[in-house]
Amino acid sequence: MGGKKKLGLKQMERVQSRKDDEEKKKKEKAVALSKERKPSGIVPPDPKNEKIVGELKKMRVLTPYAVASRFNIRISAAKDFLEQLEENGVIQLVSGSHNIKIYKAD
Q: pTM value?
């Protein structure tokens, strides 16, 4: 009596082609996202490089996350890099705890 009617051949073809198109778009999107990601570097940049120091001085606040995202390095490498810069006197520690340290350029 009630219930869903059976689809005709032409309607079934349309439904199947739409599903195929959606799956194709999802695969293309997944491939595009995987190509965009680059592995982050382990080695921090040279703290004596004037170009890098100049770029850091443009930033208002220096945190390990900000440096890691700017130079595409790991956060642990960014922490080491900021500590080296502090020892060299390029930046100054503003605030910090055992979790995060905030620096500013001199």
A: 0.61
